Amino acid sequence: MDIVDLSRMQFALTAMIHFLFVPLTLGMAFLLAIMESVYVMTGKQIYRDMTQFWGKLFGINFALGVTTGLAMEFQFGTNWAYYSHYVGDIFGAPLAIEALMAFFLESTLFGLFFFGWERMSKVKHLAVTWLMAIATNLSALWILIANGWMQYPIGSEFNIETMRMEMTSFTEVLLNPVAQVKFVHTVSAGYVTGAVFMLAISSWYLLKGRDLPFARRSFAIASAFGLAGVLSVIVLGDESGYEVGEVQQVKLAAIEAEWETQEAPAAFTLFGLPNEEAQHTDYAVKIPAVLGLIATRSLDEQVPGLREIKENNLKRIVRGQQAYDLMQRIRAGDKSATTREAFNAVRDDLGFGLLLSGYTDDVLNASPEEIAAAVEATVPKVWPLFWSFRVMVGCGVLMLLLFACAFWHSARRTPDKPKWLLKFALFSLPLPWIACETGWFVAEYGRQPWAIGEILPTHLAVSSLSVSEVWFTLISIAVLYTIFVIIEVWLMTKYARKGPSSLHTGRYDLETTHAQEA
Amino acid sequence: MDYEALRFIWWLLIGVLLIGFSVTDGFDMGVASLLKVVGNNNDERRVMINTIAPHWDGNQVWLVTAGGALFAAWPPVYAASFSGFYLAMMLTLFALFLRPLALEYRSKIDNEQWRSRWDWLLTLGSAVPALIFGVAFGNLLQGVPFQFDNLLRLDYTGNLLGLLNPFALLAGVLSLLMFVNHGAAYLQLKSEGQIKARSERIASLLSLTCAVLFVLGGIWLWLGVDGYQVVSVIDTNGANHTTDKVVQVVSGAWFHNYGKQPLLWLVPALGVIGFVLCSLFSRLAWHVSAFISSALAMAMVLVTTGISMFPFVMPSSLVPNHSLTMWDATASETTLSIMFVVACVFVPLILAYTAWGYFVMRGRLNEQQIRDNTHSMY
Predict the structure, then answer these.
(1) Among A119, A318, A446, A448, which is disulfide-ready with A251 (CB 3.0 to 4.6 Å)?
(2) What's the ipTM?
(3) Nearest chain B Cα distance for residue A316, angstroms
(4) What pLDDT, in 10s, does the model give residues B139-177?
């Protein structure tokens, strides 16, 4: 494996592990705020116990979120140095703002949430919890603005003097439509994760017949919050973000295995077996018009297919060759106005020239085979995207079903929930994580071959490190993270099993039984 | 405001963030490093950990913000330093991994071995970064072997062992001892009895050691480390032309700024005075003054380094002309001004709620309080 593959693996590893903890933090933070609000409004001790117990689990999870988050902050600089140089002017800003506006607040309040119970009035502590939840979500907003820009880089232009992208409009970067839908979709996914987590564990207590009042209340709050979250994830799914920007269009075409552009409105392929060689989907089950409706919100706009996208990219690569050559000449000292003008005319396709540079040493005189290879690379493999997307949607549908049933039963105030529902909830525990991970896989694998859509190819974005250095860090991180995750899951399970008795208030089932045993 | 002024302000702001990091995260790293030295039993160690428990997470964000601000305001510096010091950065990162886990998990299981392991990991996770930050600055002062190609891609010839040279190690030890000393100063403020008494003794000794190492480092820098000097004119208001300037390596160049502006000698002098006062106040048990002196000394050590190198931030020993300075390794004017506005709004807010957080958690901790709240504290 070369340095690019290794760096990508390291990034994938750290990002995917980081995102095991983030969605739970996003969801649990609001759930804690809701439970504590009920406590402050009703004055019932049990809601305070709920906040503190679920807060313990939140804390165990948060610690690893912070730990793995540090790796994300470091990694752009350590492993993606050219990326950092090339787009830091735009990409760095949301990351820095995230720290200043959100992460500081979240982290400062995290300490006060745990240690401030006896030192503040009820209302002040409640304010701390709410602000912590809001800050957590603000944090997600800025990270997704940064990520949205990678998918759909607007509000910026290439500056040949400094040899990098520079910000032209902060507002455009901020209001990037891709970032906005991603934000809503991602935080909602977080709410669902928090809700499934609480619902599954409460269901386990109910199945065991333990701490019933505690578990019933937790179940009710989780089911209402989860239903709202899952509806938001599905209705505000980020398909709507797939109409802008070519990278997004490629993703959409690959997710749908839309090899050829169809007549508008395009049919939606429900299932099938994408066949990369024949550029065809075998055994496809199609629903007419649905894709066109989802993607373009219209009946007459076309959704471009992969072949059309590639044909278009061939043209852009040819222009990119010009851009690359002119860029080299200007960098070498050519100051003539004609060269500058010629460059400006093809500047937007420079990224495609940079992409081609990964396939040939002589970009201007690349052979047809080299160009063909680059064109082929502009479209990611179809089947991984096709299937991960369907796994994500499948999980989403199952969770919708789960929350619909759970909400129905808690709204009817049935004192004893049916066993099948409790088991369904318990075994649904992995679903939100599977959905989150496959969703991110679609978003990021679908962005390839670009680090920044149509601007900076991934192969150019890496640091100049030695293969052995990155092997060393990749293996170290894999080993460390494995140990961390094992410890975390073990602690989490231990505390979940203990339940509210872990608060040692003397009010919960295990303590009374233990006391009897002793 | 013009580009030049913004660039200068960002040089100051990065300094502020680094000082914020040393003064806040510095003491919790220091306390954690002292865990096995000052804490003789589990209750004492729990007192120490709980003095930092409500604050370590917020403190650590100074580091994250400094990283983010470097990315946004000085992208080439972020790229060159993080990838150039690759293995050192990654080892620091691995060490930093341990802190949140050790703090959060240590007291979750009531088992001596479990706690003792996390205690060691917490110490390791705090002492290693403290050491490496100093090593990094020691290397910045000597120049780092990197260069740019025509597309401004970076290339390095250095390695991890090269970073661990004697001068850099001296800087590393100074940085580690400063953090530990700061931790001892903080413990004086927040603890009682034996822990407080031990911390006073440690700080009174360590501060003087820091003062000696700081002066020693200065002499070594004067006699044994060549500085860098820009001899061409940099257009401080224009786009970055990072590789176009002419830089010379000159003996004693790191002292030129002090020669030009003798008043600046006050800064290193205040650093030394801060350490001496910290020692004195620790002996007198004037805890607030000791903590402030320690913070002042740390800030002045950082500012001294910044002034010595000004306008350089990362000189290249391989191709000095490719050195990064705060004039020609910055973000665009648009980004710098947006980030300046953001910083103006949020830095005061951060300071305000951080201060409120310390106010809420004010007061000293003792073993009895830990025993009374054994299930809710770390």
Answers:
(1) A446
(2) 0.94
(3) 21
(4) 999 999 999 998 999 999 888 888 999 999 999 999 999
Per CATH, the number for B3-372 is: 1.20.1630.10
Of A69, A84, A101, the CB nearest to B75: A84
What average pLDDT does the segment A88-116 reach? 95
Provide the pLDDT for residue A214: 95
Would you list the domain boundaries of chain B?
3-372
Spell out the SS3 assignment of chain B.
Answer: CCHHHHHHHHHHHHHHHHHHHHHHHHHHHHHHHCHHHHCCCHHHHHHHHHHHCCCHHHHHHHHHHHHHHHHHHCHHHHHHHHHHCHHHHHHHHHHHHHHHHHHHHHHHCCCHHHHHHHHHHHHHHHHHHHHHHHHHHHHHHHCECEEECCCCCEEECCCHHHHCCHHHHHHHHHHHHHHHHHHHHHHHHHECHHHHHHHHHHHHHHHHHHHHHHHHHHHHHHHHCEEEEECCCCCCCCCCCCCCCCEEEEECHHHHHHHHCHHHHHHHHHHHHHHHHHHHHHHHCCHHHHHHHHHHHHHHHHHHHHHHHCCEEECECCCHHHCEECCCCCCCHHHHHHHHHHHHHHHHHHHHHHHHHHHHCCCCECHHHHHHCCCCCC
**Domain range annotation of chain A:** 177-244+382-445
Give this prediction's pTM: 0.94
- Verify whether the Cβ–Cβ distance A112 to B100 is below 8 Å: no
> According to the CATH classification, is domain A177-244+382-445 in 1.20.120?
yes
Q: Provide the shortest C-alpha distance from residue B288 to chain A (in Å).
A: 22
